């Protein structure tokens, strides 16, 4: 079953910018999907459609096989199912303390004080930010802010979590902590959609990748299917994962027998290299 679907979406901003053109995007329940594209491609614009912050100029958004309804009730319903973590945590965190921030969503859902406290506690624990309850969010590091923003969404127990560039601006350790957390949430059953231009991390976690360029989805498939099309990747201002690029150079410049599909991760490259060395 597709848990969320964008069907033939066009979106034009009020100033006339055509940000999305005939975008079709489908996600099956329980999957982890990456939307890969350079800056300005339309990733944030598409994501803002997933919980009704933006309404398509034409086309429709379907959640759990129901077309999104843009009245107050419909929007409330979709926002409980689809939680969006914005790119910049400063757009999301505004309460004086971490725990008040995480409590904001559940309180708005009309849950009891007791239930809210439990959810805040569980969400902060899950993202590894327990112990920070009384800290002002603006005293946290970038990675910590992101984790608190994720906790705020988790506390609402959405079925689908949408994260706009969750690793941007983080140091390598912070980025890998976020990816591990998302991976774990996904293993526990949450459907996760991530936008990124980090091509090195994507093959480690994504079940499927969509590539967006200039407001259009130009490619979709598994990491191998997508990165095999080197021309499309490069012409849309993206690049191969470093590991794949190395294999391409070894093949083209040193004539080593590393043909497509290139390994995309260190693990895959290791297997391929050991295999090559043993057969030599
Ligand atoms: P991405 O998230 O991939 O970087 P965006 O969705 O932010 O891309 O932007 C897609 C296009 O829409 C870009 O051309 C951008 O300049 C334009 N855009 C984004 N937000 C607005 C806005 N509020 N008004 C007008 N144009 C916008």
Summarize the structure in words.
- There is one protein chain.
- The protein contains eleven helices and ten strands.
- It is α/β, with parallel strands linked by helices and 280 residues long.
- A six-stranded mixed beta sheet has the order 6-7-8-3-9-10, sandwiched between helices. A four-stranded antiparallel beta sheet has the order 2-1-4-5, covered by helices on one side.
- The protein starts with a strand and ends with a helix.
- The model has no long low-confidence stretch (mean pLDDT 94).
- Bound molecules: adenosine-5'-diphosphate.
Give short descriptive properties of this protein.
Rossmann fold; alpha/beta; globular; about 280 residues; binds adenosine-5'-diphosphate; 6-stranded mixed sheet
State the fourth-level CATH superfamily of the largest domain. Answer: P-loop containing nucleotide triphosphate hydrolases
Count of strand segments: 10
CATH topology type of the largest domain: Rossmann fold
In percent, how helical is the residue content? 40-55%
**Which structural category do the helix and sheet elements fall into?**
alpha/beta
- Please state roughly what percent of the residues sit in beta strands, choosing from under 5%, 5-15%, 15-25%, 25-35%, 35-45% or over 45%: 15-25%
CATH class (first level) name of the largest domain: Alpha Beta
Bound molecules: adenosine-5'-diphosphate
Can you name the CATH architecture of the largest domain? 3-Layer(aba) Sandwich
User: Can you tell me the residue ranges where pLDDT is under 50 for at least 5 consecutive residues?
Assistant: none
Query: What is the H/E order?
Result: EEEHEEHEHHHEHEHEEHHHH
Distance between the termini: 47 Å
* CA radius of gyration: 20 Å
* Quaternary state of the chains: single chain
Let me know the average pLDDT. 94
Total domains, how many?
Answer: 2
